[in-house]
Write a structure and sequence with these properties.
Largest interface: A-B, 50 and 50 residues
Largest sheet of chain A: 8 strands, parallel, barrel
Number of helices of chain A: 11
Strand order of the largest sheet of chain A: 7-8-9-10-11-12-13-14
Shape of chain A: elongated
Number of strands of chain A: 15
Radius of gyration of chain A: 23 Å
Structural class of chain A: alpha/beta
CATH superfamily of the largest domain in chain A: Aldolase class I
Oligomer: homotetramer
Helix content of chain A: 25-40%
Chain lengths: 348, 348, 348, 348
């Protein structure tokens, strides 16, 4: 932490700053400039808030020099985190494809989609049963009934299932069914939920909030890591900007920035990041070219009948075309789509 | 809802659109233009999603013509909602001032602050006991101990207490203590929490999310209203933009826009909206001049020792100065700061 | 400037940084921390670019500690700049009201508007004759004909005229007519234009760009100041954000922030900042309550016939109501609307 | 254009709207709904402003149904625009690589860079001689001297030169030297400059403004097209958002969106879009994977000595690595980097 004094600071004010630094267990180093003085605070400092120093008399600004996240940073863990999910390994050379409908709508819908995406090359099945909908009048999900259908789809196809959790009160029920817990954009800073997930040993797919900075995403991951759960997949899904031509703005920069700052695997959701099935394929290719470790994509057997997100859902045949294109880009990157695990005995 | 066909639409595609409209229980009206056709769908239509129509063959765009919120709109309820909280009435001519520290830190801190803000003219006491902190390593609040101190402060001063709730799991505990439940910006779309609060009959202070549109704020209020709870205060607290000179950007436009769209009372939080105690007073004055029904302000007896938000907290004497200035603006607006309720027998 | 070294920096890298600082004529001060080292560069440093240091081997980040603008800062000039325009003085206690149509459309339109706004209490007349229109197919302004009508309006009413300049090629023509040159939001970083205006001794109304930071606005003012022209009025006119309920988002925080950082007068344009005549009055009141030195407002005798910006233009009678309300707020602030200069002999 | 009436509209108000539509030479079609009426205005309508209708009594909202740009749209010109620049053809299957320093700093710097980027595979040389700098105290470019050095580099290498123009007053001078005129982000809405360039028959590289929407970019292209100049290359270079981890946010969605809406070629500038040489390669790959027709990249022989943009400039050897990677992605896309034109007799 570096504290810059105001131009007309007094010796008493500088002393006050030096004392405050010592009170926090840090060592102050003062540099006298032409017009001001700079005080560096050296030592371990775990509280990211700068407020206590910013409001001291005579202080112009306070600048943080270390990252506020620890466990998720490359400095703490220089190698990529690589960990197995039932059916694939993420964080290594393999590209992981997660696909399925926005909402589980019926048994036949999810089973049909599951078989279709698996045949096309998907590694995991996504599907929502508790839906965070902007409107209280919109479809809110099938709940446990949906989880049962998903479990049946897993049994038939061998694919692990990725399901969004909206509240820690759903955790006990979901633990019985779910392989990968998705935390949606609107819950990225639901800290109670993050803490609860940190206590589990399930893989967490943590989506970036609509207007969350990359640093805030890493701070939210830190909540889960601090609980001892190290299996986190970060997901860029588009941010909110002034541009209205697309539902969100894909922050493609976030892929190489995250790969640089953290050891956790990073995937992209081209469906939400564009909001339009017509743009999913080019953005899926771009994500892999930029270094993403995988994709999570919305697929629906008949998007015009989907109860939610129909506009951004791919038909299964278009998803198959996406897999082909992504495969070609992956090869240029020296990577490959994760091989499909053999189906279980109960499978097809 | 209006559906605009593509230039090269076919009669079959137009028929498909007309059929889809009928399937949803609406009446289609077709207008043939020079290059395209426009189909208006007339009737009651409660599902705000336009996706099912947007992806029909031959459709260029779909435009909504009615607001997606109902209960919160001025159309449904042209008069201002006016309702009593224990100690004051909000939504009428009175300006309400809520003040207190970001976090309850100790018994003496909250009692000292409570007396100070009441003497200065505050109508309600704010204070957090469960803190949504970006970092898992930061102070997370005193929990029930803090609620007890707040209750004691209420008893001594007669002011109702405003406390943030982060999760519906905290509801039972908090119901025993809290007068006004604050939903923080990060939880504005925590729909499970909103639904739970809709079941209570407590006043809810609903803060706008960091990057939530005004329409989304009203949709979140709709979740609470749909549960039968009509006592909602909306709160503008600054939005996230590209500007970094202040912590957030006060969307002062939101005040008259909300007063135009909804009958619910609207307040502003100049502490979060600026992030700097030096700018709280001018923005507090501006809010009242723009038509806000009140303010919620952070006050701390010694901001340099605050465990959170010290930089944006007013000292009690500066808060007293703010009240004086706000009072003068209120009078120009033909309003007045709500009179302080007489203290209870148990009071000072 | 402060340079933070990477954790694993080498002594050679640190030496390289120290050398680079000396090459730029600055004095390096090294502080050794637990995991890194910090180098403060002390001395005069006029080049705001940090790039040459950011890319040195072993450097983690570089942080600027002094403001990049000099002439416009409060540090250089602690007192408010107060200067006369023909007809009023700005920067002191007086509130200045500039009003008129978006575009000069005809002789009768501008004369009618001029008399109406003057009677209502305006101090200056605004009107565009070269229009920066998004579409090449839209009305582009009357050019010199419009300037002549404005000059006639000035003669009749005694009000100075405020006209937007789009290019330095228009300067010679406009110098013959114009009292205050307005630089529009889209030209805030048209540096050739700014430099040309810095050579004049006319008052410049410099509008903030749609997505310009407050610091960038001050840097653009610096271009004019560096040419020796000190008569600059800064204008907040709304910024571009994700919110679509209003045309722009009024950054009301910018008023007190600018008053803190610079000695130049600051006004607000509630017409562009909201885009809707229904919201102009509350935002005009808010601006004065926040400390603005004046307002620039669009007024049209018949907004439904305006060739541009009709939606955000006030009718003269509504402008008169605005003046009344603003006057009342100004009095609370200990200020008053600038008295109207007596008309010239040629006047009414 | 569709006009939605307020719920409580009167027959007189509806008549007023119908009349206004007729006055503009359009045909009104009224649809009566349950609570409101909708009026479609059918016919040719070239004025994109909706204001004259929005402010009519009884009108709730007005929605545009046709795009405001004509010449640049896919509807007007379904096939890709393909046109030759001296040295390559853009808009077809070839990927074009433009590279060079931010600023021309000296004869040796630009000659060295030109040979290096050509050897690595560049098709055109970029270099600025008039620099739009935020600060008046920063290096402003070499002017004509720089143009002479660029011309010499062209003679030696055979590459056409791409140079930014800041004002129409520079046009006559630059026409003697420049092959491709770059319009920078800050000048995207400098309409006088756009109009002047529309009169030339030179290729224009039009960069998107920092906070310009995709539609506004196309409207700016329309200014040039309306002058008869059809040789326009659109350039995505990052937009301004709340994220500060990178200098700008690459709007990768803009690539497929633009390819869908317009026939003009689209390139990406990964240097400005990220602001960091460490992220240029992944974003360059992503752009090609998303369908871009080329790249414009900053290259400097010694970035640590660059007078501007050093942080985001590639060293020549890193640029060569980028070309190799981009070539591999291009092949997957069924495209190739444009072959290098044979050097002229005067060449190497």
């Amino acid at each position: 932490m570096i504290i810059v004094m105001k131009r007309n600071y007094t010796p008493q004010q500088l002393e006050g700053v030096v004392d405050a630094i010592r009170v926090h267990g840090l060592t102050p180093h003062v540099t006298y400039g032409v017009e001001t003085a700079i005080v560096a605070a050296v030592g371990e400092f775990h509280i990211p808030a700068l407020d206590p120093f910013e409001i001291l008399d005579g202080v112009e600004t306070v600048k943080r020099i270390s990252q506020p996240y620890k466990l998720g940073s490359r400095q703490a863990h220089p190698e990529n985190s690589v960990f197995p999910v039932d059916g694939f390994t993420i964080g290594g050379d393999d590209i992981i494809l997660m696909a399925g409908p926005c909402s589980v709508e019926s048994r036949s819908q999810i089973l049909e989609t599951a078989h279709a995406v698996r045949e096309a090359g998907a590694n995991a099945l996504r599907g929502g049963v508790f839906k965070p909908r902007t409107s209280p009048y919109a479809f809110q999900g099938l709940g446990e009934e949906g989880l049962e259908y998903l479990a049946e789809a897993r049994e038939q196809t061998g694919m692990p299932i990725v399901v969004e959790i909206m509240s820690q009160t759903q955790l006990d029920l979901m633990l019985k069914y779910v392989d990968v817990f998705q935390v949606g954009a609107r819950n990225m800073q639901n800290f109670n939920l993050l803490r609860a997930l940190g206590e589990t040993r399930k893989t967490i797919l943590l989506k970036r909030g609509l207007s969350a900075t990359i640093e805030e995403l890493l701070m939210s991951a830190e909540y889960i890591l601090a609980g001892g759960n190290k299996q986190i997949i970060l997901c860029e899904r588009g941010i909110r900007t002034f541009e209205t031509a697309t539902r969100n703005t894909t922050d493609i920069n976030a892929i190489p920035v995250l790969k640089n700052l953290t050891h956790l695997p990073v995937v992209l959701d081209p469906s939400h990041a564009t909001g339009d099935a017509n743009y999913v394929l080019p953005i899926a290719r771009a994500a892999i070219a930029a270094g993403a470790d995988g994709l999570i994509v919305e697929v629906h057997p008949d998007p015009s009948k989907a109860v939610s997100d129909g506009k951004q859902s791919l038909k299964p045949e278009k998803f198959a075309e996406m897999v082909k294109q992504v495969k070609a880009i992956a090869e240029v990157m020296g990577r490959q789509i994760a091989p499909i695990k053999k189906p279980t005995a109960a499978g097809w």
